[in-house]
Design a protein that fits this description.
The complex is a heterodimer.
Chain A: H1 3-9, H2 15-24, H3 31-35, H4 42-57, E1 63-64, E2 69-72, E3 83-89, E4 95-102, E5 109-115, E6 123-128, E7 134-142, E8 147-154, H5 167-173, E9 178-183, E10 192-198, E11 208-209, E12 214-215, E13 221-228, E14 231-238, E15 247-252, E16 258-266, E17 271-278
Parallel strand pairs in A: 1-8
Antiparallel strand pairs in A: 2-3, 3-6, 4-5, 4-7, 5-14, 7-8, 9-10, 10-15, 11-12, 13-14, 13-16, 16-17
Chain B: H1 2-12, E1 25-28, E2 31-34, E3 52-56, E4 61-64, H2 70-83, E5 88-92, H3 98-101, E6 113-117, H4 120-139, E7 152-154, E8 157-161, E9 166-171, E10 181-185, E11 190-198, H5 209-220, E12 226-231, E13 236-237, H6 243-261, H7 266-272, H8 284-299
Helix pairs in contact in B: 5-6, 6-8, 7-8
Classes of the chains: A alpha+beta, B alpha/beta.
């Protein structure tokens, strides 16, 4: 029943993808991002990243991220609409931010994390859509303004225009529901990993009803703020590339028993607000 | 792929008569099934990968899935014409997947009633073009055609009468997909389960794992003595024939739950869940990981 396989085999960019590219790119992206075309060979991919780098970081120099930031993603994604990404960071100078860039997605900057004083930025996991064969770049920014980049190539296609699945109906129904799992034992002052799950369809505006020729309107998470007892863990500027029902695993340092507060704002300006006891009550 | 795109349309454009009839098996009196190959769509198989067929009544014929491409559908039509001159009054579309519905256009000249799950029009509207682009990238241009939507919609149960032979149709809850339709021929005790039943070829999950297990439990208690799977042999004993599917789905559910309970991530789960099933199924490596992702997404919200 060749659904998945068909997606994997299709090397050509889908018609829907092309349509989507011209209409779904958010207004705050640069012209360079919007008009850069699908890269077909290595040289074009390098040029594509150069364009993006310039659009995002201007003239600031990016250093090789080896030893500072590591990105792990499946070489062949099994599901283009849900590609798990793991980011591992290590630096003597504190890390203050992280950019995840999916070069050939319609809106390449998938995530920009800004870490707060309660963060443990050594490990991050998230799930993204990948629209076609692409490099994914992760850029860590240190407190002194240094930028360190790592990359991985991912083969898959159709993640952005992929038709909405049956689960999306559920996602819309329960929109804003959240769960927080603490992965490990709470010890005051010791770093702890937490997995945040958010019910949200994260419609990217690229799924078209071919008969009515209407698109499912875009509705996606724009920002997530995580604070612990009022002190920032992270601020995330997000975009259409996060998967349906986003799941983000992050580290934080709870100095004492307290409350993790999550504030999620989407593109319709809906606010979702949840608090979780740490350790879980 | 380039070669296929250049050469295939030439003979695709040939008139429908050149489509040679498929070899079908009469699994019960008047029920003829063509066995699909255990492959994914490729230029050499015309997407003839699903089990498709037809039921002959006293007055008319019903098609149970028109096939995976126009050519596949034309060849099925040729098989029907070889078997009977009766009119093709119904074309059942068992669910949204391309290997089952892309042959629909091959029957348009018969002006049949296209029958589907009440959720099928929306599902097809959202996916037809997406699937068509991908299928035609492999089979060549104009091998799929324009969307064909069902006009007789089944919300729960319905019957179609072929003259002395009534097919009982059931629109299922979300299972293999969110548009699964099965047909039961009481006269011969034959359940045409389409992709609610996979045998030999690894199942693909595109709806709900728990929903599928529920629908399967209901189907097991039906009066059927044999079933026609959507993939696998043309006929299996019922309910014995769903043993492998039920076991696979059970393993998927149990092991996904265990992975989540152990705090394993989705990417770790993909590498471990279901592996005990690996040697039991064709195309396991092509689908199991995707199934685990679908299962994980569903189960992690329990």
């Amino acid at each position: 029943m060749g659904v998945t396989r068909t997606c994997l085999l299709a090397l050509v960019m889908s018609t829907l993808g092309v349509l989507g590219q011209s209409r779904a790119a958010p207004a705050d992206d640069s012209e360079a991002i919007m008009h850069a075309h699908a890269a077909q060979d290595a040289a074009e991919r390098v040029a594509r990243w150069k364009d993006l780098q310039h659009a995002i970081f201007g003239t600031r120099a990016l250093k090789d991220g080896a030893g500072v930031i590591q990105i792990e993603a499946p070489e062949h994604a099994l599901d283009a609409a849900l590609v798990p990404i793991t980011l591992t960071m290590k630096s003597a100078t504190p890390i203050k931010g992280l950019y995840l860039v999916i070069d050939n997605n319609p809106s390449p900057v998938a995530s920009h994390f800004t870490f707060g004083p309660r963060a443990d930025p050594r490990s991050l996991k998230l799930r993204v859509r990948v629209n076609q064969y692409t490099f994914i770049h992760a850029v860590a920014e240190t407190a002194d303004g240094g930028l360190f980049v790592s990359q991985q190539f991912v083969k898959t296609s159709g993640g952005c225009s992929a038709p909405v699945g049956a689960d999306n109906a559920q996602a819309l129904k329960d929109m804003g529901l959240m769960k927080l799992h603490l992965l490990g034992t709470f010890t005051p002052g010791k770093p702890l990993q937490a997995q945040l799950m958010i019910r949200h369809p994260n419609f990217n505006g690229m799924q078209m009803d071919q008969i009515t020729r209407n698109y499912t309107p875009a509705r996606f998470i724009r920002t997530i703020d995580a604070t612990y007892d009022g002190s920032a863990v992270f601020h995330l500027d997000s975009d259409i590339s996060l998967s349906t029902d986003p799941v983000i695993t992050f580290g934080f340092v709870p100095d004492k028993q307290g409350t993790m507060q999550l504030v999620v704002r989407d593109s319709d300006n809906a606010l979702f607000n949840h608090s979780f006891d740490v350790p879980a009550g | 792929m380039g070669l296929a795109a250049c050469t295939l349309p030439v003979w695709r454009a040939a008139p429908a008569q050149v489509a040679p009839p498929w070899v079908t098996q009469e699994v019960a009196p008047g029920i003829h099934i063509r066995e699909g190959v255990d492959e994914d769509v490729s230029a050499s198989n015309d997407d003839a990968i699903a089990n498709i067929g037809f039921v002959i009544g006293r007055d008319a014929v019903a098609v149970m899935d028109p096939g995976g491409s126009l050519h596949d559908g034309r060849r099925l039509r040729a098989s029907i014409r070889q078997a009977t001159p009766l009119p093709i009054r119904y074309v059942l579309l068992s669910h949204v997947h391309p290997d089952h519905v892309f042959g629909a256009g091959a029957f348009s000249a018969d002006h049949p009633v296209y029958v589907g799950h009440a959720g099928l029009p929306r599902a097809l509207s959202l996916r037809w073009e997406y699937y068509r682009t991908r299928t035609e990238a492999i089979l060549g241009k104009d091998t799929v055609g324009a969307p064909v939507l069902p006009t007789l919609l089944v919300r729960d149960h319905a019957q179609i009468d072929l003259g002395g032979r009534v097919l009982e149709l059931t629109a299922h809850g979300i299972a293999h997909t969110d548009s699964d339709l099965s047909a039961f021929d009481r006269q011969t005790g034959t359940l045409m389960a389409a992709d609610l039943l996979f045998v030999r070829r690894v199942p693909s999950l595109d709806g709900s794992l728990k929903g599928w297990l529920q629908e399967l439990a209901k189907l097991k208690s039906s009066a059927a003595k044999r079933a026609v799977p959507g993939h696998g042999p043309t006929s299996v004993d019922w309910p014995l024939g769903c043993r492998d599917l039920e076991r696979y789905l059970g393993v998927l559910l149990r092991e996904t739950r265990a992975a989540i309970a152990q705090g394993r991530d989705i990417d770790a789960a993909v590498k471990t869940v279901g592996l005990s099933e690996r040697r039991r199924w064709a195309l396991f490596d092509d689908y199991n990981g995707h199934n685990v992702i679908q299962a994980f997404k569903e189960v992690e919200w329990e």
